[in-house]
Write a structure and sequence with these properties.
Helix content is 50%, strand content 8%. By secondary structure, the chain is mostly helical.
């Protein structure tokens, strides 16, 4: 990356973080505000996505064409509540932005430093879309559970839809991303980051043979780390 590209990366990261800090979509206790999450996604998309027709398509998919804003992030683990998917995705982006400067400065010291150019738009798209496959995937069932007073209450419980078809967690997200933003087909490093964001846990045996090649892509590792820290450190 040129010095101008590096400067632009860090300037754009600061602007995205400023949007996040101003809106405070997730409080210090890790509780998301659904309206602020949507506003944050809206403003960040407008700021960072250069192709305005694709920015519009991305917002339309997130806000009206899918249940991205209402879906949980999982059935039993992190973000297993209404709106958990959007909150988790935004937290992954936040973690990515916070980690990006020291991460990329370290990468630029290695032998592969000239092999990849990473923009703030690339980070934004990879982080926000990494779990697009989960939208429209879950249904709600109810189970009986006693409250602290011994009274039975119906508790919502998320289940994966029985008619779900999946080519692989990361790859399904890539397919959805390409449907929304076709220009991403020209950005292999973004596709790899979304496809391989779960590391070895989402690979077939044959895919694992040359997996180390993907780890040369700094965006792959950045999104993996951001995803894990969002879920394990921040419970989102």
């Amino acid at each position: 990356m040129t010095e101008d590209e590096k400067k632009q990366l860090f300037n754009d990261i600061e602007q995205l973080l400023s949007i996040y800090d101003n809106l405070k979509p997730i409080n210090d206790e890790g509780k998301p505000d659904a309206q602020a999450v949507k506003q944050c996604l809206d403003q960040m998309t407008d700021f960072i996505v250069a192709d305005k027709s694709e920015a519009s398509a991305l917002k339309e998919w997130m806000f009206s064409k899918s249940d991205f804003l209402k879906s949980p992030a999982s059935t039993h683990f992190h973000g297993n509540f209404e709106g958990g998917l959007a909150a988790h995705s935004l937290k992954v982006l936040h973690q990515s932005l916070l980690l990006a400067r020291p991460f990329m400065e370290n990468f630029w010291q290695c032998r592969l430093k000239d092999a990849y150019t990473v923009s703030a738009e690339d980070i934004f798209i990879s982080a926000i879309s990494h779990d697009f496959c989960k939208a429209d995937t879950y249904r709600i069932e109810y189970r009986n559970q006693k409250d602290i007073f011994g009274n039975w209450k119906k508790i919502p419980n998320y289940k994966t839809r029985s008619d779900s078809r999946n080519l692989g967690h990361g790859n399904e997200s890539v397919l959805r991303l390409l449907e929304i933003m076709p220009s991403i087909i020209k950005k292999r490093h973004v596709i790899e980051a979304v496809s391989r964001h779960m590391g070895f846990s989402d690979l077939s045996e044959s895919e694992g043979y040359n997996y180390s090649n993907f780890l040369q892509n700094p965006l792959v590792i950045l999104i993996q780390i951001a995803d894990e820290t969002a879920a394990q450190w921040h419970d989102l």
